[in-house]
Amino acid sequence: MFLGRTSVGPILRFLSSYLRLEPKDFVNLSYLYFGTFVMRAAAFAGVAVMQHVMYPDTRDALWKGLLFAVYPLAEIATVGYFGTLCDRIGRKRILVFAHLVTAAAVFLFIPSLGAPVGIRPYLVAVFFAMFGIGAAAKVASTLAMINDHSSLSNRAQLMAFFDLVTFGGLVGGFGAGFLALNALGTDAALVLLVGGLGVTASVALVYFLVRETPFVPEQRGTWDLLRAVLANPDIRRLLPVYIPVVALYGYVISFTDKLIGVQSGAAQVGKLIVVVAAIGAPLAASLIVGGRISDRARMRRPFMALGLACFGGLAIVISFGPTVDELYGRWPLVAVLAAGAGAFPPAALAYLGDIVQHSVTGTTFGIYSIIFGSGLIVGPILGGALTSALGSLAFAVIALGLIGVAGVGLIFIREPSKAPRAPAGMEATAPPARR
Questions:
Q1: What local confidence, expressed as pLDDT, does residue 14 receive?
Q2: Confidence at 51, pLDDT banded by 50, 70, 90
Q3: Contacting residues for 422 by C-beta, under 8 A, at least 6 apart
Q4: Which of 3, 26, 41, 404 has the fewest C-beta atoms under 10 angstroms from its C-beta?
Q5: The CATH fold of domain 21-411
Q6: What is the residue extent of each domain of the chain?
Q7: pLDDT score for 293
């Protein structure tokens, strides 16, 4: 025991110093990040099953997009309420609820696999709604807790780790479920069982190990808090930037099997792993490195612009080489573009943290989740309609159009203030007016 403590102590102190956190704050965030990764991975393995058993035919692409849109609709409908609850009663209770409702959705889907085909879409819609409710509570509470621990010197880095565990869990869980179902022929019920057990483990982790972060309880009601946040012009300027990016993200999640043709066999699986690694590894590295540089420079907009440009380039490469064999032959270019695309998420989330007023932190990140959910509605529905008409070329049309809109919107947002963050319970300084 003594050796274990002496070996871990220096590492803990180094990482805490590197991220400019107190050791106890670093430990709390570590549990929060790990719980988020486990929940996302297990939950999106369940999403892969839902996508697999519902509307496998390309002709049903529009209906598939409409079904997936239930998820963000439920998120949008409830996230404002959960965000205000974070400011009124605390973050942790909302966090635990998020993990619980997600676990229930995964487990309940198992017996529904034997339901009649005509009834199954309605059951899946209910489960997607539960996922949306869980996502609403999860994003609002988790981002509020991260922002409570952050400052201008480490905010983008801490948001980068949130992006890393979220997207890592999504890609890992959805990718593992996708491969298990399509390449390995694993039974759907087994994939759901493993996913449900994973989310259950995350419930225990956040309940017993994650501690509440300091906050000052708000006395204002839900609508008053929402109005106070939406009155901030800097948050409104984010809408045309973030919604198109998330719409593209939602389209990719909904139509992965249509964008990349996957055939069975060890050779195809090996090439697919190389392609996924060429996207995932540089993306993960750029999240961390880009977040640190953004914090050191106290700038967000240049990193958001770089991410948008590379995201658009990656979209072109994928749309004009949609098979695994073609992407495998272009993996160096894919890796470079993925590295640049990773600059966007931490800078965008840090920007929101820079402009947030501490008394409405949960509500503000609830509004962020509304933005995220709106994009997930636009992407699958628009993608479903165009995929049915244009096939893989639809990805290029959608990607370039959405990235173009986001790029124009980026021109009008203001660089956040470089003033120190306001202490808990006080209002943060707004970005200076552009001259």
A1: 77
A2: low
A3: 357, 358, 428, 429
A4: 3
A5: Growth Hormone; Chain: A; (1.20.1250)
A6: 21-411
A7: 92
